[in-house]
């Protein structure tokens, strides 16, 4: 398995301090960046291929030998979201 | 559209399907239910075990074999389970030699590796399973001596593009994508360098959702209980004057699913969908990073995909492996370091 443990806080803090004369900006900026980061990742997940399948269907061969046209839909999303 | 009503089942429940005119119910998972789907029996012979060479073991998920098997240990149980495994292997690969064994050069080596990954803490039952492997007529110890186990186990978890072409033929899925993520960070005009600046947040690990759906639909074991068409379940108590009641339980018998299905059936005909049965794939995302650790030491934030076309009773059983890992989100962790709060 690849290493998923990204220590973003460290690098993000360093980056902000470097950019801002050694001082860290407000909590509001962190909240904004966390949201941006989350939305960016979902934008990557909901790619053109999926959007095309949702709009125009995805024709697949099923194990019973029939071809069917599948339309993916998002029904639920149960998630935690770090507020800050 | 026509409504197709089932006969009442043993409990008096009637299912009503709304189907396009001229079509029939092509697939009825409820018909395929056997006693083994409804029991929690610890007898391994009543379980569907996946011994398919390939990615099932590749995830390195050692929870694959159910721990309830360990208390079994009876001769009857072990005698039954071994031939099933062997039979499955033979249908998958045809023979014990040649390709079809993933990163392993032959069936004997595969059997041993499969045994190793099936459980975390070896029990007496596992030991008996090992002896059963040795007993198989086509098992040869010489095939397993010169195997580079470390390399083969590493290849099990690899993506197709990580391996040379001839070594990666057995990998059927698209694997994990690695996408760099950049965010725009705004700095206000009283800061040292005002304006927008890009920050490279890291590499986002995720799988293509369409390829996960494709795998799910093509999987013959899962398709058996994958509901293509939603229905309305009703029940009428056997008392005079009783009203018919709608039953709520599964996503595929919910109003939301029926609405989505209605909308899809009403879509215009195109060259792509012409003459084909239209099916809603109900995606259910789930993620909870806080479940992993009690304190903020880990930044692992996984996202899973479940399918509402499958019964909740199967989805809730970890041994069924119905939750597909689709992403590991990158988090900005704030509040973990106290100095951020007072900045």
Task: Identify the notable features of this structure and list them briefly.
heterodimer, A: 84 residues, alpha+beta, 3 helices, B: five-stranded antiparallel sheet, 12 helices, 9 strands, 28% helix, disordered C terminus
Helix-strand blueprint:
The complex is a heterodimer of chains A (84) and B (343).
Chain A: H1 8-19, H2 27-45, H3 48-56, E1 58-61, E2 67-79
Antiparallel strand pairs in A: 1-2
Chain B: E1 2-5, E2 13-19, H1 35-38, H2 55-58, H3 75-93, H4 107-118, H5 124-135, H6 142-145, H7 149-156, E3 177-187, E4 195-206, H8 209-218, H9 220-223, E5 232-235, E6 245-247, H10 255-265, E7 277-287, E8 301-307, H11 312-315, E9 324-329, H12 338-341
Antiparallel strand pairs in B: 1-2, 2-5, 3-4, 4-9, 5-6, 7-8, 8-9
Helix pairs in contact in B: 3-5, 4-5
Beta-strand percentage range of chain B: 15-25%
CA radius of gyration of chain A is 20 Å
- Please provide the ordered H/E string of secondary-structure elements of chain B: EEHHHHHHHEEHHEEHEEHEH
**Biggest β-sheet strands, sense, barrel of chain B:** 5 strands, antiparallel
What is the number of beta strands of chain B? Answer: 9
Helix percentage of chain B: 25-40%
The unreliable regions of chain B are 46-94, 334-343
Count of helical segments of chain B? 12
Give the integer mean of the pLDDT values of chain A.
82
Describe the strand arrangement of the main beta sheet of chain B, using strand numbers.
3-4-9-8-7
Cα end-to-end separation of chain B = 64 Å
Approximate strand percentage of chain A: 15-25%
